[in-house]
Amino acid sequence: MKKFFTRHRREIVFIAAVLLAGGAMFLVPGNQPLGERTGRTARAAVLSVDNSGLTKHGLLLYGSQKLEVDVEGECFTAGNELRGQMELDKVFSPGDTAVVVIHPGDRPGKSMLTAQDHYRNFWSFTLFAGFCVLLCLFGGFTGVKALFSFVFSCIAIWKLVIPLVLRGWPAGVTVFAVVAVLTAVITFLVAGVTKKGVCTFAGAVSGILAGLLMARVFGKVMHINGAAMPYVQTLLYCGYETLDIQDLFVGAMVLACSGAVMDLAMDIASGVEEVSFRNPALSKRELVRSGMRIGRSVVGTMTTTLLLAYSGGYISLLMMFYAQGTRISDFLNSTLVASELVKTLIGSFSLVLVAPFTAVISGWLFGAKGSGRKAVCVSSPLALRIRRFRRCRK
């Protein structure tokens, strides 16, 4: 154990700093509810349902559903209002677990509670716990560091990006600054405070910055104002009418592509590091060429991955246009499809640009000082052991 702490001293110190920063952000109080909240939520087991108050019009249900629920051993009656909105309405069945709102004066058998939604937290936490266990078992200490970076990213988005943008900070710049911090944290947690981490960070931030600039330009010339994002209109009516939704759309694009850009930068930096490790006499120019070749191989699949990830989010929209027989030129010109198209292409541009950026930076940092030395392949077991020992000592 002592040897482990000695070997990973810098990583452990960095993890401790990340945990302190994440804990400090988590303790920051959140936004207060817009309306006065007098009740509390509780889990309730649905015992029976009464659907006599429901009416079906086509595919939609309207009306009120009455429930008999068990809340902490006491029997209550709860109401569930359906308004014909499939994305918001919920229908309960006996045996379900619901979340109900209980006010201070509510009494069993006398008060009508409000059924808020299905209870999903148990399975959400179960799924997250399974992900954590699998990541740590497969990745070992690197998996533990990746888990810390995952949690830190969630806290940073919820406690930094969203509150600052709602308070009037420019969304594009704010998201870029937070993403740069997240890139540093994730990169140096996973790769360590090493040359590979520096190359990954510098290449990823360069690609994300290029994507930010292109998003601003093409968002304006294509007249995409961000209104196509879900719940934007509701947000404006909740007291944030001064919110710049076009800048918010730019920030959303930067945030959406940052993970893939970081992944590609790590792949290229790792490849150049391995090439340099196998042949330390390679010059900077030769390592840059190697990084370019690695980037060409990875970019082809990464851009397709980004396309599939984005298209999965609006597949139902494409199905609607196809079902209506809409021409390709017509639906590509619509606001909804154009906004998703810009998001996909800007992310792909960032991916393509991050490859040469990372290759150049990696080649410059890992390359030998002199370019005229003959490349010697270091492949003997003794030489490899010596190289690994020196790297561990660093």
Protein architecture, described:
The structure is a single chain. The chain starts with a helix and ends with a helix. Helices cover 62% and strands 13% of the residues. It is globular and about 85 Å long. It has a five-stranded mixed barrel. The longest helix has 46 residues. By secondary structure, the protein is of the alpha+beta class. It is built from twelve helices and six strands. The protein folds into two domains: 78 residues, Beta Barrel (OB fold (Dihydrolipoamide Acetyltransferase, E2P)), CATH 2.40.50; 225 residues, Up-down Bundle (Multidrug efflux transporter AcrB transmembrane fold), CATH 1.20.1640. About 3% of the residues have low confidence. Helix 5 packs antiparallel against helix 11. Strand 2 and strand 3 form a beta hairpin.
Structure characteristics:
394 residues, alpha+beta, OB fold (Dihydrolipoamide Acetyltransferase, E2P), Multidrug efflux transporter AcrB transmembrane fold, 2 domains, 62% helix, globular
* Number of distinct helices: 12
- Strand proportion: 5-15%
Rg computed from alpha carbons, rounded to a whole number of angstroms? 27 Å
User: Which range best describes the helical content: under 10%, 10-25%, 25-40%, 40-55%, 55-70% or over 70%?
Assistant: 55-70%
> How many strand units?
6
Principal-axis shape: globular
What is the ordering of alpha helices and beta strands?
Answer: HHEEEEEEHHHHHHHHHH
